[in-house]
């Protein structure tokens, strides 16, 4: 299929390492909107696969109940944005509907690097929100990497955080980085934040999933309200 697949109308980019390269890191990056078929509230979501192991992911659908197809659908923490690796803005999850839509600000694709910049501010019903831009940079160089950068601006100080979602084991390291791993593969997660310090807040998502597992949401939360902040998460294979 080549090194990338770009679905411009859906706002979905799939990035793959070049054949016979030293990188085994592949990613899927999602813009889209929150009124899609079988919709989840997941504007800005992403999946990271190392080798054949999806270490960071969308945990998938729940076991269907009457709630799934009712007005209570988004009480589910795997169908709402809590169960996806997207920001939490002023304590609010993403809203539902086609107005909650990623706008492609820019994209640039080269042999070595694919960059996708999304404005995802419309996904949040937060009057104080002035800007929320998510930038994905996927590199095929070396062992490969993905950086996810969220730039946010508010008219007055608000809480802000983002998240990673995994079914696998995780560890917080002494330098405030993370390790996400299973029995075969491991990702190193470097985190930087401007404007405030951050803390890792783990939550087990207790929903009945088709996968028959319970995912972990690793919240990356700023420790105080801010008017301007940047959180960057850089994912690389463990050496």
What structural keywords apply?
5-stranded antiparallel β-sheet, globular, 0% helix, mainly beta, 239 residues, 8-stranded antiparallel β-sheet
Task: Kindly summarize this structure in a few lines.
This protein is 0% helix and 51% strand. It is mainly β and 239 residues long.
Structure description:
The protein is mainly beta and 239 residues long. It has strands at 4-7, 12-15, 25-30, 33-34, 46-50, 53-56, 88-89, 97-101, 103-109, 113-119, 129-139, 145-158, 160-166, 169-172, 178-181, 186-194, 198-204, 216-222, 226-237.
How are the secondary structure elements laid out?
Layout: E1 4-7, E2 12-15, E3 25-30, E4 33-34, E5 46-50, E6 53-56, E7 88-89, E8 97-101, E9 103-109, E10 113-119, E11 129-139, E12 145-158, E13 160-166, E14 169-172, E15 178-181, E16 186-194, E17 198-204, E18 216-222, E19 226-237
Antiparallel strand pairs: 1-2, 2-3, 3-5, 4-8, 5-6, 7-13, 9-10, 10-11, 11-12, 12-19, 13-18, 14-15, 15-16, 16-19, 17-18
